[in-house]
Amino acid sequence: MSTFDPNAAATADSGVFGLPFTEEQAALVFLPVPWEATTSYGGGTSDGPAAILEASHQVDLYDLDVLRPYEPGMHFLEESSQIREWSEEGKREAQKIIEVGGQIEGNPSLVKALARVNALSEKVNEAVYQETKRLLGAGKLVGVVGGDHSVPFGALKAIGEKHPHYGVLHFDAHSDTRDAYEGFTWSHASIMRNVLDHIPACEKLVQVGIRDFCEEEVDYCRDHGKRVDIFFDAHLARRKFEGQSWSKIADEIVGKLPREVWVSFDIDGLDPRFCPHTGTPVPGGLDFQEACYILGALVRSGRKIIGFDLNEVAPGPDGDEWDANVGARLLYKLSAWTLASQGLAKQQ
Predict the structure, then answer these.
(1) pLDDT digits (tens, 9 = 90+) for 258-275
(2) Which helix (H) or strand (E) element contains residue 268?
């Protein structure tokens, strides 16, 4: 670290954000998960982690909110070739079911394909769980980088074993509380339902920016009463139009959360101008700085970010780097506020 110059350009052989840290030296470790089997609209999110890593070399390291968040160390693990192979197989099998809208109607070949996709999804969940558990056991903070939004389930399970009373702050265009969407038990459209159904340590889910959902999801969240709070995008927009400050709104969002918080960030929670190639873009959404302000409000409230995931970043065709550029900068802000909340980096 003594020879590292944070003001210099990243070198070709440097790590994430141009940093020199090994896994052992880093306080925060990024776990890439190149998986997107059940994506039913756009694709490419399995290439998100690698694209973010490459784009991270263009991010300047000094931050107005957290000053020098790189100092505790960040490290990006190598992708699992096994998970990528599972993703490619799973996507082939899932496509057969997606093409018929999940209506397999006893078709033996489709029943077999569905079973295989669900089995591969469980393998991914277990791999992410085991790797997150290993990192937590080594005293690391963990940031999961997807892939589609199904990938953090194993990490959320592992974090619940260490933090038995935590909440999830969920940025997304979608509620992700569908029941086995198109038959896929571990669909990206079901991640928060699976968390609520299978991880009791997650005592609170606060969703922000939601603007694309079905009636079943609204009913499901309503049935969970005080365990779920939704800040719909339309309602947030109306409040801003009527003159409410974003500071007041952010404090209200944060006030719904417990002391320990996992942040789950689907990039499509942002306005699509920041993520035009994500799998399921939806008009509306948060401005980049609005999302960052909520993260800052969360930490300034005294709450701790115990980990996070960033998902659904899809690089554009023909080398378009915009989505990865935004993803890398959002990853840095998530990292900065996480480290500041843990007392490992100094906030302004």
Answers:
(1) 999 999 999 999 999 999
(2) none
